[in-house]
Specification:
alpha/beta; DNA polymerase, domain 1; TIM Barrel; 2 domains; 10-stranded mixed beta sheet; two-stranded antiparallel ribbon; 12 helices; about 30% helix; binds S-adenosyl-L-homocysteine
């Protein structure tokens, strides 16, 4: 595998980003398989209708939803408030198993847990639970694989398999919530407080499923899980029409933009979708998002030694961002196997931070949790595949 594959034209990023991903992005498949229908795919009205279709009273929709979204269970034998025959039929029809844990990796004394999931059709996706003293963050996948072809990203190098369904996305968070509630994560029983769409996939290329997942995660129990919208971050390569569409939903979710370079010449190679939407257009989209939602934009910037970490690029980035509702999240590159690239030297990283701060731009450097368990960026799935 070349360290820096150049994307072939048939893997060019989706030009109508807000619409469905064209099948040409899916590798070697005539048709994309559809996961079984699950309660989490449906809004409450749809659940009531589906339950009525089964010949059960519609109010069972609320009971079943409470089990899944409030108690994190899909097991009929744990639903003692439902008549036995009803619970079996309802669970079979509306709570089919979607994800099977293929591997579980733990580090940071048990507070970072990565799960490699197998979907019903054999695709692999990853999620990561990171518990901190004051919060617990679930990092979730929105697609099996990714079609955006960023050369430094393990998922990008593997290509897109398919979009995840809403329930497949939600199920990753429910699994994390169940684990935290059980008390098996050091720190005592807890809750998922934050969700980041920074696992595998480009969330805005799977717009409808991701948006419905955001609603399920943030609607109050029993409609959804009741997590605060402000604690949800959707991270994108910069699909400008989809950013505008998301802004128009008037949600309070945080938008993260994976910029990685302040100039088009370099960004065209690091984030190939930049050939379609340039740095200036992406930032314009981000500023409109901030204006509409009042939410501060997060700019993601993986620091790659001698590639994008020069002082002049820090200055250029600082001048583009200065005065806007924004902060920069610097990510030391987590090199993919065989990559010719590596993380920036500590001096370069410090200087990059200093220059951004010199422009009055707030900066954080992301901690590198989960490195030893291939915690970042699709590397576990790549190693199993
Ligand atoms: N497709 C979305 C979300 C997935 S990745 C996006 O691009 O934003 C989440 C973040 O991890 C992105 O900023 C991505 O560029 C970054 N990332 C991917 N591979 C990485 C690596 N090897 N080292 C550091 N950051 C990486």
């Amino acid at each position: 595998m070349p360290a820096q594959p150049s994307p072939s034209p048939d893997r060019a990023p989706d030009a109508q980003a807000a619409g469905p991903v064209p099948l040409t992005l899916a590798r070697g498949r005539g048709a994309v398989a559809k996961p079984p229908r699950h309660l989490a795919d449906l809004p409450m009205a749809g659940r009531r209708a589906a339950i009525a279709d089964l010949g059960q009273p519609a109010f069972r929709a609320g009971q079943l939803s409470r089990h899944f979204f409030g108690r994190y269970t899909d097991r009929a034998d744990e639903m003692s408030d439902l008549p036995r025959d009803a619970r079996d039929a309802l669970a079979r029809a509306l709570l089919p198993p979607l994800l099977t844990a293929e591997r579980e990796l733990v580090c940071d004394e048990g507070t970072t847990r990565k799960t490699l999931w197998r979907t019903f059709d054999g695709a692999l996706v990853e999620s990561v639970l990171m518990r901190y003293p004051d919060r617990a963050t679930m990092c979730v996948s929105s697609q099996a694989g990714c079609g955006m072809a960023c050369p430094f990203c393990a998922t990008g190098q593997a290509g897109l398999t398919r979009n995840l369904s809403t329930a497949e996305i939600v199920a990753q968070v429910v699994a994390g919530a169940r684990l935290l509630a059980s008390g098996d994560v050091p720190g005592g029983p807890g809750r998922v407080s934050n969700i980041v769409f920074m696992g595998m996939g480009e969330p805005l290329a799977n717009y409808a499923s991701v948006l419905a997942a955001v609603r399920r995660l943030t609607d109050p129990v029993p409609d959804g899980m009741g997590i605060s919208q402000r604690s949800v971050t959707v991270s994108t390569v910069g699909l400008v029409p989809a950013i505008a569409r998301l802004a128009a939903e008037h949600l309070s979710v945080t938008l993260a933009v994976s910029l990685h370079a302040p100039d088009d010449e370099l960004r065209d190679t690091l984030v190939p979708v930049n050939r379609r939407w340039k740095v200036a257009e992406v930032l314009e989209g981000a500023w409109s998002y901030a204006a509409t939602t009042g939410r501060r934009i997060s700019i993601e910037y993986a620091l790659i030694r001698d590639i994008n970490d020069q002082a002049w690029r820090a200055n250029l980035l600082g001048s583009l961002l200065a005065g806007h509702l924004v902060y920069v999240n610097l990510i030391p590159l987590n090199p993919t196997p065989g990559s010719k690239w590596t993380a920036s030297r500590p001096e370069a990283q410090r200087e990059f931070v200093r220059r951004l701060e010199g422009h009055g731009v707030p900066v954080t450097v992301r901690d590198t949790r989960g490195r030893e368990i291939d915690g970042a960026c699709g590397q576990l799935a790549a190693s199993v595949q």
